[in-house]
Design a protein that fits this description.
The complex is a heterotrimer of chains A (about 200), B (about 100) and C (about 1000). Helix content of chain A is about 20%, strand content about 35%. Chain A is of the alpha+beta class and about 200 residues long. Chain B is globular. The chains are: A alpha+beta (about 200), B alpha+beta (about 100), C alpha+beta (about 1000).
Chain lengths: ~200, ~100, ~1000
């Protein structure tokens, strides 16, 4: 497989930055090596599609639109009642598997892996950083691990997934990825942050 | 204003885009009656008070909603997925065919 | 000692922590904990500014956000801030401030002559004098007036500081931290609710901080704060003003993060906007003392009685040595006593005949002389009050006698009663209700999710305020879904004494006949006096809203915090109506002035709005492209060589494309996947032409209409399989098309099984155009047969290049043989580079949007300039494209007479008679040699220099189109510059009209 050029290739710069000198309270990392595929069923087929898809996807598909389901490095978001966004390792070749599983009468499959950039924001101050651009209540009692919110982040339509107690994955449109990355850096500077090497 | 999206939960209205009156039903694609289309495209009730509107959750799940709200107080009475509440018009001539 | 008027060890300031500051260039000393106002007073300075209209000397009048006079210019250079309230500016070491609105100096201001002519500057002065008889007089006078009047000056340098926005969520938002606010937070906090408490001042405590240090309330305060700080579910936000209340529990706050420092720390923001979403709100915003108008009641040294008390008790400052306290209510007695205790001589003038006996007795034992049934009718002194003229006064009739006594003083304290701060309730549309006993507007039934408590409701004892706050907090928490407070409220240490005698409302002290007539001010900040309200009444103004706009009363930066109620009470008196009948004006956000920094937050510079970059952005920058913003996108505009300007570059690029070939980044075109069993039917409905017969592997040009029958957008859509189409839209309308398609599917045609998904971000788009494009693509994508017969115009092919999937469309926007290559975005740069490298052998040039436009204009393709929401299919020459065999969006409405009218403005080409003469987009088309008047026959929509034709050309829309004007001359007029360019109307298809090049 040819190398995929990151949308952040021209700007991404790992290192300890911002206020303070000790351990940073925020980390930022581009999550690479992921494929993203949309599985869109029809109102009368979605239940069947959801259960049938769990085999090729490797995890049960979520029934809740505000809660992801995850297994290993595969995460599935239910973005509407009929649509699922499957994020998994590139090598899984999930789009192909799904096209083989479903006819267009059951569901249609759209490749979106090159159209999204995933940024992981973690650490004790991750929530404070995101609260500066995302008008969603991220209190751990309300936005529990696994919760997702499709919303506006600093003016960009994006998806926020709490992938851990202090860890959030932002799935942002590729052509706006630089905007979000720059904003994260500017916002995290007051807390002190580290940009980690991009990786899977 | 806060709108409770059936998919995403309660959100600020800035995430949504209003797409106009949802009290009218779009004529059937095969309907060629001028008055029917004229009324649909141009005539608006524009009530002061309760009103049904299409709202698009543009910066959220992207779903289409029918929001019933008060245009004066902004009180929101109901939010539904549009797909669940809109009804399809009969094909033109269906009525005439039935009458026969 | 920090200041000559400082009480040793007095107040709540930090003695020993001195802060040096300058005012009008002179250096002074203050203390940590001071405001700029208290520090100035500590140095004996009352005179701090000149007034807005009359340039009268003005002093510090209040001790908080209601201050009408003490507006100063803060800091210098890029951080200069005009109109800062000295009473809310926290003092820091190194602060620089200057007085405003004076020239050449605060002590001697030439414009004070305005004061001598004040009868000319009465209400409506500007309207009457400079507008009306002479049509252009206002334009002439405006800049002179703006210079003479107005407030401080803003800096023109960019703000070097950072601002940000943060979203917070809570169950209960408490506004205000006096006894009511703190108790509300305590109740909600003890009930387990998520609580936010906002206090505009740096210290929590509100009115309790104005009590003498060591008062019994201090213990209550420190115990309460200690508990609140320990509660994990309570967040305290000092230096944070709640300035806006909106629908459904949204409140906007401004936190002054670093305004109390010389400059923000590294990485620190100066101010922060906090948008709060809350279940319930407790407003404990207190009450503001109001003035009483009397002659020259604006002289420096005159201030609110509560403010004087605050300066003594909180800041340890003596605002004078000899004070007169003038009141119509009990509250000022405490001020008088505290001033006396601090060593100030005090005489108390109570306008009521029936003074509170117990308080009078306390005053007497403290050696304070109390005069009742008397009023201050005028103040003497100019730069500082020197004495107060006291007369007998009948509060019932408002009549006053001649001056019976002149009291020498350097401090004149006034209390006309208290106005509850109802702004955040009023902002929600709730009309305040007049309470005759308090002679004040109370907030009325709380609107939506609000609760009201404390002095805002007229409860003026500390214990009463605390109790009402606790009850409101408990109720709010419960309604927000929390439990009950774990413990009840303790009020030990808080005073519970209520007023002994009721307030007697006084809205004006009219001088007796023998008494000198002096201006009696209502609104200090806008220089509006009693006489202006009277004049407005004489001229027939009845509504308070009109009064406000005509006199500008209450329209200054302080929003009439001290003046509104007095103004409308005066209006009520004049019109013989009651105050409730007269009504109040509506408060709107913001409660306090809010900086632009807070409004914009991080949305500045390149982040003004999110900037969209294509996958080729970095490469374009690296290779010297000049970029241009197109909507949200940044696109390559042109690729200059050797110092070329845009004109030279695009002419070279355009020429090269037609000669050999060129490559352009077209990622910005909207790309939509249309998938599902009913996809063909769907496209057949949204496009005007037929789609059902299009075979997989083929593309077709399509046009969409709006429901009203006018053209919406166009683009090329390819069929990839029976149920899968790949649609492209224009760059400008991509989002609108996507939205519209979604609406049709989700809200109208719910029986169609079709999904539309935007994939604009998923694919990079590269157009290769020119006679050599075929050979170039054949070399790079060897698996595809590019021969004309094998891969005809409007064909689609798929292949891989070094493992990267590539889709090639044979479509043309330039009129040349051309292809568009789509590849997943992450491969965009690699494919582009492969083409670029191979292109060196084929004469490939890079071209940007300017050449892209020139090529399409030469070819006569319309674009956004022509699809402007007003053109029909026929206007664009596409009438025959519409299918007659099916219905589609807009098919009925496009048949309307007006849209079919042959006289409509239609799409044409334009050639200037002089080929060297440039056409201007937007120019109006008029008959040749005139008349050049009115809207004309049409307009020029697009223009370029055409290298192919060696002349300037243009596209436009003209009445009757080619049929009427082909070959005729019209004048393109640009009235702003007086330019007239005669040009010939021709077919828009300047270049290769038969399409031999693109099809060949």
């Amino acid at each position: 497989m040819a190398e995929i050029r990151s949308a952040l290739a021209g700007i991404y710069a790992p290192g300890r930055k911002g206020a303070g000198t000790g351990d940073a309270e925020v980390s930022i990392r581009e999550v690479t090596g992921r494929d993203i595929v949309q599985l869109a069923a029809w109102p009368d087929t979605v239940d069947g599609v959801a259960s049938k898809a769990s085999k090729p996807v490797g995890t049960a598909l979520p029934s809740d639109m505000q809660m992801a389901s995850s297994k290993g490095k595969t995460t599935v978001f239910r973005t509407t009642r009929e649509k699922f966004l499957i994020v998994c390792l590139l090598k899984a070749n999930i789009g192909e598997a799904l096209r083989e599983t479903f006819t267009p009468e059951e569901a249609v499959i759209t490749e979106l892996g090159h159209g999204r950039t995933i940024l992981r924001v973690a650490g004790p101050k991750a929530r404070d950083v995101l609260a500066r651009g995302l008008a969603v209540d991220l209190h751990p009692d309300v936005f529990t691990p696994g919760a997702i919110a499709q919303s506006n982040i600093h003016g960009v339509a994006a998806l926020c997934h709490r992938s851990g107690p202090d860890q959030f994955d932002l799935v942002v449109p590729r052509n706006f990825a630089v905007v979000i990355y720059e904003w994260l850096e500017e916002t995290a500077a007051q807390f002190g942050y580290v940009v980690e090497e991009a990786g899977s | 204003m806060r709108i409770t999206c059936p998919c995403c939960g309660e959100r600020d209205y800035g995430e949504f885009t209003i797409y106009g009156d949802a009290s009218r039903r779009r004529p059937h694609i095969e309907d060629t009656d001028f008055e029917t289309w004229y009324n649909y495209v141009y005539i608006r009730p524009n009530p002061k008070g309760r009103h049904k509107e299409f709202w698009h959750h543009t910066r959220g799940c992207g779903q289409w909603l029918v929001v019933e709200r008060d245009t004066v107080t902004h009180e929101i009475y109901d939010v539904s997925l549009a797909r669940d509440v809109v009804t399809l018009p009969e094909a033109p001539g269906a009525e005439a065919a039935e009458a026969k | 000692m920090a200041g000559s008027h400082r009480i040793p060890n007095g107040g709540r300031v930090t003695h020993g922590a001195s802060a040096s500051f300058t005012f009008d260039g002179k250096t002074y000393q203050g203390l940590q904990g001071d405001t700029l106002a208290s520090a100035l007073l500590a140095n004996g300075i009352h005179l701090v500014g000149r007034s807005f209209k009359y340039h009268r000397p003005r002093g510090i009048y209040a001790a908080g956000a209601e201050e009408p006079n003490a507006l100063v210019g803060l800091r210098e250079g890029a951080r200069a801030e005009p109109n800062a309230l000295a009473t809310t500016v926290e003092l820091y070491d190194g602060l620089t401030a200057k007085s405003q609105n004076n020239w050449p100096s605060l002590q001697f201001d030439v414009a004070e002559v305005n004061n001598l002519f004040q009868r000319f500057f009465s209400a409506g002065f500007y309207y009457k004098t400079f507008i009306g008889p002479f049509e252009k007089s206002w334009m002439w006078y405006e800049h002179i007036i703006r210079k003479a009047a107005g407030m401080g000056e803003a800096t023109t340098e960019p703000d070097p500081d950072h601002y940000e926005k943060v979203y917070k969520f809570c169950d209960v938002l408490v506004v205000g931290s006096g006894p009511a606010g703190l108790s509300a937070a305590l109740a909600a906090g003890r009930a387990g609710a998520r609580v936010l408490l906002a206090e505009q001042e740096p210290d929590l405590g509100g009115a309790l901080l104005s009590a003498p240090k060591g008062s019994s309330s201090d213990q209550w305060l420190s115990a309460t704060l200690e508990e609140l700080e320990k509660l994990q579910n309570v967040e305290l936000l000092p230096r944070t003003v709640a300035w806006g209340a909106y629908d459904h529990g949204t409140y906007t706050l401004m936190e002054k993060v670093a305004d109390h420092k010389l400059q923000p720390d590294e990485h620190e923001v100066r101010q922060r906007s906090i948008v709060v979403q809350t279940g319930r709100v407790v407003l404990a915003t207190g009450a503001l003392e109001r003035p009483i108008p009397f002659g020259n009641n604006d002289r420096p040294g005159i201030m609110l009685a509560g403010a004087a008390r605050t300066y003594v008790n909180r800041y340890g400052v003596l605002p004078g040595k000899q004070a007169v306290v003038f009141t119509n209510n009990d509250s000022a007695y405490q001020s008088a006593l505290d001033l006396k205790e601090a060593g100030i001589d005090v005489t108390l003038v109570d306008a009521r005949k029936d003074a509170p006996a117990q308080l009078v007795a306390v005053c007497k034992s403290a050696s304070i002389e109390v005069m009742s049934g008397r009023a201050v009718v005028g103040a003497n002194g100019r730069m500082r009050v020197r004495s107060a003229d006291v007369a007998e006064f009948d509060a019932k009739t408002g009549a006053s006698s001649d001056v019976v006594r002149q009291l020498a003083c350097d401090l004149l304290c006034v209390s006309g009663g208290w106005n509850p701060v109802v702004h955040l309730s009023s902002q929600r549309g709730r009309k305040p209700e007049f309470d005759a006993k308090l002679a004040a507007f109370l907030p009325g039934t709380p609107p939506d999710n609000q609760h009201h408590a404390g002095a805002m409701l007229g409860a003026f004892s500390d214990a009463g305020a605390a109790q009402s706050g606790f009850a409101a907090g408990a109720e709010a928490a419960q309604l927000a879904g929390a439990g009950e407070p774990s413990r009840a409220l303790a009020t030990e240490g808080l005073t519970s004494a209520d007023w002994e005698k009721p307030l007697v409302p006084i809205w004006d002290i009219k001088p007796g006949e023998q008494v000198k007539k002096r201006k009696r001010f209502v609104d200090f900040q806008h220089d509006v006096g009693v006489s202006d309200v009277e004049l407005a009444h004489i001229e027939g103004y009845v509504s308070v809203e009109h009064l406000k706009r005509y006199t500008t009363l209450g329209m200054a930066a302080d929003q009439g915090k001290t003046s509104n109620i007095t103004g409308l009470a005066l209006m009520a008196e004049l019109t013989g109506r009651s105050i409730p009948e007269t009504g109040t004006t509506t408060f709107r956000p913001p409660y306090n002035p809010v900086s632009f920094g807070v409004i914009t937050g991080q949305e500045t510079g390149l982040h003004f709005r999110p900037l969209r970059r294509t996958p080729l952005h970095d490469w374009n920058l690296k290779n010297g492209a000049e970029m241009i913003n197109v909507g949200a996108w940044q696109r390559a505009w042109y690729y200059p060589q050797g110092g070329e300007d845009v004109d030279a570059a695009y002419i070279r690029e355009t020429t090269q494309v037609r000669k050999t070939c060129g490559m352009v980044d077209v990622t910005t075109l909207g790309k939509i996947e249309v998938q599902g069993p009913d996809a063909a039917e769907f496209l057949n409905r949204v496009y005007v032409n037929g789609w059902k017969l299009l075979k997989p592997g083929r593309a077709r040009y399509g046009v969409m209409l709006r429901d009203d029958g006018l053209v919406f957008d166009d683009g090329t859509t390819s069929r990839l399989s029976d149920t899968h189409y790949f649609m492209t839209t224009t760059t400008a309308e991509a989002a609108a098309v996507m939205t519209h398609l979604g609406w049709l599917l989700e809200c109208c045609w719910t029986d169609l099984k079709v999904h539309v998904t935007s994939v604009t971000d998923q694919y990079a788009g590269i157009a290769v155009a020119g006679p050599n494009s075929r050979a170039l693509l054949q070399e790079v994508f060897a698996d595809i047969d590019f021969a004309n017969e094998a891969f005809p115009f409007m064909g689609v092919r798929e292949t891989e290049y070094k493992g990267m999937p590539v889709r090639v469309f044979r479509i043309s926007f330039s009129g040349e043989l051309a292809y568009e290559v789509a590849t997943p975005s992450g491969f965009g740069e690699a494919i582009w580079e492969a083409l670029y490298e191979a292109g060196k052998g084929h004469g490939l040039c890079l071209y940007g949007t300017e050449a892209l436009g020139a090529l399409r204009i030469e070819k006569g393709h319309f674009a956004g300039n022509e699809i402007d929401g007003r053109t029909s299919l026929e206007d664009l020459g596409l009438g025959k494209m519409a299918s007659t065999k099916k219905q589609f969006v807009g098919s009925v409405m496009r048949q309307r007479e007006g849209i079919q009218d042959e006289n409509r403005q239609r799409f044409v080409g334009l050639e200037p008679v002089n080929p060297e003469e440039r056409l201007r987009g937007g120019a109006l088309l008029h008959p040749h040699n005139g008349p050049h008047a009115g809207h004309g026959l049409g307009h020029v929509s697009s223009t370029t220099y055409s290298p192919a034709l060696g002349r300037f050309i243009g596209l436009g829309l003209i009445e009757g189109g080619l049929e009427r004007y082909e070959g005729q001359l019209v004048d393109a007029c640009y009235p702003l510059k007086g330019w007239v360019v005669p040009c010939k109307v021709v077919s828009p298809h300047f270049y290769d009209p038969a399409g031999e090049k693109q099809n060949g």
